């Protein structure tokens, strides 16, 4: 309670300060927010086109250079994105399963405002709710895409147990190079129902959003669509390393070499995890992980150990992509090559 009067007092001071600043710097100029803010959905699963017009009070004032400040809620990042543009349209990616919120302000400069930049105090806003069509509460779970060795893109989704029997699900996708959304080229079936899409032979561009929509029909009506958006370079799972080779070097060292998987994964983008496991004299296994960007490594070899084994796996490192997936582990290579431990021999 005690802080209440002081807060009010502060607010009054702030108001006075703003008015004073307005008087000094803005010379009392004001400008109206833009009009006719419209969000257009061309059916690209979240890639929306936003358009607006200048405020009517400025239509015939060509001498006033206009800029617009567009703010939209980026549901992927959970924060507002702010851009300034002199154009009257802008395209951005939205998550259609969440509210789409867009605000636009007018900014004015030049002789009209005595060369001071002013911004409309108010904004024009559109809030668009997610489409409510479809059997409620039934969206696809666990939509996961993997770009195997940068050759074969496969997306899978989990079956929602609430989905009505005899439903048919469809996957559509769109990216910048397509005029219209296309349907999955080859569905993956599990237990007779669609559970994924195999894009083999269908080239998808990297470093640009690929938007997906999984919708469908059921005896109870259309299924609620699920939307997803991703960039394929962040879903690369390299092939398995090949020709893993061990050699004992001088001074009881183990020299390890391997080759990267054949294919189009750029070698300079790979980082490797090497797992070095050793079986002690008492049969106890110990292992350590080593990370490297080289395709060879020298490891210390302790003769007291019965056996030492190495296996490797790789992923694209963060200098090349935002996110990489680990490859499968290679077959292990061991020294000595054949097991001498009694419980492992058959
Ligand atoms: C315009 O700004 C200049 C200083 O930048 C000031 O001297 C002048 O009085 C202003 N004119 C008007 C009409 O406010
Ligand atoms: C700002 O605009 C909203 C509608 O877009 C309106 O409800 C509100 O009264 C406006 N505020 C001012 C200060 O003009
Ligand atoms: C699924 O989406 C596609 C592409 O937008 C559309 O052509 C199709 O009619 C939709 N199917 C259903 C069952 O809603």
Automatic annotation (TrEMBL):
Keyword Membrane included in the entry's annotation: yes
One Gene Ontology molecular-function label: cytokine receptor activity
Superkingdom to which the source organism belongs: Eukaryota
Subcellular location(s) per record: Membrane
Protein's UniProt keywords contain Glycoprotein: yes
Record InterPro entries: FN3_dom (IPR003961), FN3_sf (IPR036116), Ig-like_fold (IPR013783), TypeI_recpt_CBD (IPR015321)
GO CC annotations, alphabetized: external side of plasma membrane
Domain Fibronectin type-III: 240-337
Keywords: Glycoprotein, Membrane, Receptor, Signal, Transmembrane, Transmembrane helix
Signal peptide (from-to): 1-26
Membrane topology, record value: Single-pass type I membrane protein
PANTHER family documented for this protein: CYTOKINE RECEPTOR (PTHR23037), INTERLEUKIN 13 RECEPTOR SUBUNIT ALPHA 2 (PTHR23037:SF45)
Protein's UniProt name: Interleukin-13 receptor subunit alpha-2 isoform X2
Gene: il13ra2
């Amino acid at each position: 309670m005690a802080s209440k009067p002081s807060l009010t007092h502060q607010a009054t001071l702030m108001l006075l300060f703003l008015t004073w600043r307005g008087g000094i710097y803005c010379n009392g100029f004001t400008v109206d927010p833009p009009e006719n803010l419209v969000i257009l959905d061309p059916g690209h699963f979240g890639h929306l086109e936003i358009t607006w017009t200048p405020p009517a009070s400025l239509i015939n004032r060509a001498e006033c250079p206009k800029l617009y400040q567009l703010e939209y809620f980026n549901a992927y990042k959970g924060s507002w994105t702010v851009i300034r543009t002199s154009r009257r349209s802008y395209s951005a990616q939205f998550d259609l399963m969440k509210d789409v919120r867009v605000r636009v302000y007018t900014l004015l400069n030049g002789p009209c405002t005595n060369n001071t930049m002013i911004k409309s105090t108010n904004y024009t806003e559109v809030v668009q709710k997610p489409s409510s069509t479809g059997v409620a509460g039934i969206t696809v779970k666990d939509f996961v895409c993997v770009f195997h060795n940068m050759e074969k893109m496969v997306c899978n989704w989990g079956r929602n147990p609430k989905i009505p029997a005899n439903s048919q699900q469809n996957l559509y996708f769109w990216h910048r190079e397509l005029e219209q959304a296309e349907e999955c080229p080859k569905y993956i079936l599990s237990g007779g129902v669609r559970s994924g899409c195999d894009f083999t032979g269908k080239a998808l561009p990297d470093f640009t959003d690929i938007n997906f929509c999984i919708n469908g029909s059921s005896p109870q009506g259309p299924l609620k669509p699920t939307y997803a958006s991703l960039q394929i370079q962040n879903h690369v799972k390299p092939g398995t390393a090949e020709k893993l080779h061990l050699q004992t070097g001088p001074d009881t060292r183990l020299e390890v070499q391997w080759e990267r998987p054949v294919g189009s994964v750029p070698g300079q983008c790979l980082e490797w995890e090497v797992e070095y496991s050793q079986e002690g004299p008492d049969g106890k296994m110990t292992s350590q992980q080593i990370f490297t960007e080289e395709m060879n490594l020298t490891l210390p070899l302790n003769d007291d150990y019965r056996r030492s084994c190495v296996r490797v796996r790789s992923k694209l490192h963060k200098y090349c992509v935002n996110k990489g997936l680990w490859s499968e582990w290679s077959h292990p290579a061991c020294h000595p090559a054949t097991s001498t431990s009694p419980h492992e021999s058959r």
